[in-house]
Amino acid sequence: MSVFTKLTLSEFKLTLRDPLYVFFTLLFPLLLITILGNVPTMQETPPELGGLRVIDVYAGAALGLAIGIIGLQGMPAVLATYRERGILRRFATTPVRPTLLLAAQLTMNLATVLVSAVLVYTVAHLAFDVPIPEAPFALLLAILLNCSGAFAIGLLLAALAPSGKTANAIGTFLFFPMMFFAGLWAPRDLMPEVLQRIGDFTPFAAGQDLMTGALTGQSPEWLSITVLMGYLLICGAAAVKYFRWE
Amino acid sequence: MTVIEVENLAKRYGETVAVRDVSFSVEPGEIFGILGPNGAGKTTTVECVAGLRTADSGRITVLGRPAGDPELRARIGVQLQESELQDKITVREALELYSSFYPNPADWRELAGDLGLTAKLRTRFGKLSGGQKQRLSIALALLGNPEVAILDELTTGLDPQARRDTWDLISGIRDRGVTLLLVTHFMEEAERLCDRIVVIDKGAVAALDTPAGLINRAGDEQRIRFRPSQPFADELLTALPEVRELRHQGSRIEIIGSGNLLHAVISVLARDGIVAAELTLEQTTLDDAFVHLTRGE
């Protein structure tokens, strides 16, 4: 087994020992879908949603929530703590580079999102007849792009925050407005025009649009793709520039 | 061949000069100590040697290669201050994981045994005591079968028994042919373990010598205290060339002097039939030498 695989598995094991992480990334999205699925108004098909029911849109929102929690709160806090406690420094004294630990964290978090996605769409389909995505590859691409944007922001937070606690505080501060624009409280298409256009440029809203699009088999919006690639490139480059190992 | 060669090392952080001018060399199989007051530049020096920091100027070679050479990472073991692990990783998991980082790792079970960690293999890092964390940290530094081990404040936080056990372990490591660079502020530790010591003060070398050599530099003052079985005239002892000072401390007498002080004093007392009860002899220690060498102007 390669060192990278070992590290990733080790990160997995350690993460699964954190009940909060497991709850918010795997159980909470399911809980959200289950509760919302039982609300009668969620079965309605407002004309703005182009034939989809509200609950259909919320499957993506629930997954977006998991991605947001990981990208804005979980990962930056973990990485900043790794720096704060000298874990990255210890790596620097071994033949393994500390970058590999970051890569293992990212891989582990991405894998968690994919597991969460399978769970969310399976439960949503079986329990509430949310359609199986017309374009599964477009959905996978949407999830990957959503993660790229969110994780790049998370890396930048980890790079800039002096401690794990600060990283978590900033992440939480960003989390609520971003989730609002992504339509966690009210679907984007039901929002006033201005809020929708602002939302277009926030990462989770762009990700949400791509996921909704994949559900109905529309071709992906170039604006959403560009926005997410932009977050990936700009935040990613800034994270690389400002990341401190100690 | 010298194992570590440091020449005119200098390192500053912004305006703060951490190391001004430090040079020393470490021979194979040596236990070499770095001693100095807090903030003297000890840790910066070893971090430069370990390749974690780049020197502003000066030259450092380790095992014939420039410090920081990637090839050295598999050949040097480093134990840093304030370097922890994830709270939820168990001792066993950490040892297994870090073993896989090295091309030629030591048997981690054996190391865990040597460091008294066998009973703690299933314990998570966050639940270990300070001493156990420290011992795990030493184990991780030795996992790669290093040719050189750099240990920064290795016994800080250990209780006296654990400290002595660690010293035995360190001697054992040296017997395996590992060259050791120790940073410490425990004089007893330096005196017991180190073949040679460099004393760093305010970023520069204050002295470089064997522990005995350093003690000699501080002068060989000795102090004898005892309770005489009967009173006697001070002149009896102050007349001796070895005695510099005689003080009365209640029923006890303290004598300060040098050379063959103890023998001279006891001979005179015995001649007059005086018994020296509760006798203690204090010699200059590395502690005294350290204070002498690093006393601020």
Ordered list of secondary-structure elements with their pairings:
The complex is a heterodimer of chains A (about 250) and B (about 300).
Chain A: H1 3-16, H2 19-37, H3 54-84, H4 87-92, H5 98-128, H6 136-160, H7 164-182, H8 193-200, H9 203-216, H10 222-242
Helix pairs in contact in A: 1-5, 2-3, 2-5, 3-5, 3-6, 3-7, 3-9, 5-6, 6-7, 6-9, 6-10, 7-9, 9-10
Chain B: E1 4-13, E2 16-26, E3 31-35, H1 42-49, E4 57-62, E5 65-66, E6 76-79, H2 91-99, H3 108-114, H4 130-142, E7 148-152, H5 160-175, E8 179-184, H6 187-193, E9 196-201, E10 204-209, H7 211-217, E11 222-228, H8 235-238, E12 243-249, E13 252-257, H9 261-271, E14 276-283, H10 286-294
Parallel strand pairs in B: 3-8, 3-9, 6-7, 7-8
Antiparallel strand pairs in B: 1-2, 1-4, 4-5, 9-10, 11-13, 11-14, 12-13
Keywords (chain B): Antibiotic resistance, ATP-binding, Nucleotide-binding, Transport
Membrane topology (chain B): Peripheral membrane protein
InterPro entries (chain B): AAA+_ATPase, ABC_transporter-like_ATP-bd, ABC_transporter-like_CS, ABC_transporter_ATP-binding, P-loop_NTPase
> What is the fourth-level CATH superfamily of the largest domain in chain B?
P-loop containing nucleotide triphosphate hydrolases
Sheet with the most strands of chain A? Answer: none
**Average of pLDDT of chain B:** 90
Shape of chain A: globular
Distance between the termini of chain B: 38 Å
* Number of helical elements of chain B: 10
CATH class of the largest domain in chain B: Alpha Beta
Low-confidence stretches of chain B: none
Can you give the helix content of chain B as a percent range? 25-40%
Q: How is the main sheet of chain B built?
A: 6 strands, mixed
Query: Structural class of the helices, strands and pairings of chain A?
Result: mainly alpha
Indicate the low-confidence ranges of chain A by residue numbers: none
SSE order of chain A in H/E notation? HHHHHHHHHH
CATH fold topology of the largest domain in chain B: Rossmann fold
